[in-house]
Amino acid sequence: MRQIYMDNNATTPLHAEVVEAMLPCLHNNFGNPSSIHWAGRQASVLLQQARAQVASVLNAEPHEIIFTSCGTEGDNLALFGSADALRTRGNHIITSAVEHPAVLDACRYFEERGGRVTYVAVDSNGRIDPADVEAAIEADTVLISLMWANNETGTVFPIEQLSAMARTHGIRFHTDAVQALGRLPIDVQHTPVDLLSISAHKIGGPKGIGALYVRDGLELSPRMHGGHQEKHLRAGTHNVAGIVGFGRACQWVEEHLYTEHERLTLLRNRLEEGLFAQVEHVSRNGDSENCLPNTLNLTFPYVEGEGLLLALDMVGIAASSGSACTSGAEGASHVLKAMNADDMTLNSSVRLSLGFHNTEDDVEYVVEHLPRVVQRLLAMSPAFDELSEYECDVISCEIDPHAH
Ligand SMILES: Cc1ncc(COP(=O)(O)O)c(C=O)c1O
Asked: In tens digits, what is the pLDDT along the chain, a chain of 404 residues?
């Protein structure tokens, strides 16, 4: 059976060039970059090279890059590091209702410790209105944290406008750019963000390594204590192999960003077209104009999302759920809920996210098999009677009872 991986917003395979770059660090080049001897110096050279590569993809300076263990750690360092450093100025953070849990759960913890957070709402397409963000600013606001692109729907926030607005108010601006890196151009000289989190495993790099861009001169308190590494902002012996892999993945992004953006857009459009042509009443979630080139979040009415994922897995297609479906709206996607989605959408949505390794063939395979899977599930659905009323003669393709 073919295996088609279309869950690249969860994680990506590694580029061959990344593995190749990392291998020497797992064999001979094992030194601790903090050591002064030859082994340490060799590792230190690799660390510097990688820091320059990561900085370059953001158009930042190498000293503005703080390596972390992942995007989640970068988000936490940005939030708590700012809240601690600016404690005497205020205790209020602004974020959105659709952030990744790395920001949302951190904000909830901040509230438990006495902080105040405003969660700005989005519209039914997942868009944020910069005027709502501006209206949420209070005298004691110390940080605005808004994601560059949403991991579930791919909706892109107008970060340039939002960060410029924050700057005019003299408020620090953080963006979670974990999904934006590698898919959209990022230039911190052009976009006045103060803090920006990224993660290697979303761009063909290894897991367990991320970075926080910290604008030159910004005061930040560490979350991890115990060493001088990363300018005392992130103590702990460097993950040299991970950092080298991250650097190489960033170089790949610099070399391929624009061609890859175009290629992924074409593939995603073909996928959307192919599925819409065959599955009646399918609908798309998110802002289709301002969207990541690789992401398609779809609702298949009357098909239980979790069941669809399992059935897709049986034909070799790895996708993911836009919502946790089994317990109805209770465990459903906070992103779709914030978009005021109805129960059908909360229960019947699936995310397909493309990556650098996906080909036209992969897309055609999904266009061929996904509608059949939907048809099969509809035939078994208790809501099938309702469905015929709904005129959901989903597809004309045959149902093969032996298909997996
Ligand atoms: C938008 C966003 N932020 C943060 C993270 C967390 O990144 P990491 O897995 O590197 O901790 C993710 C991962 O899915 C994400 O999509």
From this structure: 899 999 999 999 999 999 999 999 999 999 999 999 999 999 999 999 999 999 999 999 999 999 999 999 999 999 999 999 999 999 999 999 999 999 999 999 999 999 999 999 999 999 999 999 999 999 999 999 999 999 999 999 999 999 999 999 999 999 999 999 999 999 999 999 999 999 999 999 999 999 999 999 999 999 999 999 999 999 999 999 999 999 999 999 999 999 999 999 999 999 999 999 999 999 999 999 999 999 999 999 999 999 999 999 999 999 998 544 344 445 799 999 999 999 999 999 999 999 999 999 999 999 999 999 999 999 987 765 555 554 444 433 333 333 33
DSSP letter for 291, please: B
From the number of C-beta atoms within 10 Å of its C-beta (0-12, 13-18, 19+), residue 125 rates as middle
Q: Is 107 a catalytic residue?
A: no
Residue limits of CATH 3.90.1150.10 in the chain: 4-9+257-389
Residue 229 Cα to ligand 1 midpoint, Å, equals 23
Amino acid at 184: L
Helix H or strand E segment including 284:
strand 283-285
Pairwise CA distance, residues 27 & 133, whole Å: 50
Tokens 């901040």, residue located:
110
Q: Nearest residue CA, atom 8 of ligand 1? A: 71
CATH class entry, domain 16-253: alpha beta
Which of 306, 281, 328 minimizes the C-alpha distance to 377? 306
Give start-end residues of each CATH 3.40.640.10 domain in the chain: 16-253
* Ligand 1 centroid – CA 42 distance (Å): 31
The architecture in CATH of the region 4-9+257-389 reads Alpha-Beta Complex (3.90)
**Ligand 1 atom closest to 210 (CA):** 10
Q: What DSSP element (H or E) covers 199?
A: strand 195-199
Burial of 394 (0-12, 13-18, 19+ CB in 10 A): buried
Point out the catalytic residue in the list 70, 325, 392, 397. Answer: 325
Residue with tokens 């939030």: 79
Q: Give the number of the atom of ligand 1 that is nearest the alpha carbon of residue 75.
A: 4
Cα 378 to ligand 1 centre (Å)? 33
Instruction: Please give the distance, rounded to the nearest whole angstrom, from the Cα atom of residue 12 to the centre of ligand 1.
Output: 12
Out of 73, 98, 100, mutate this one to test ligand 1's pocket (max ligand atoms within 8 Å of CB): namely 100
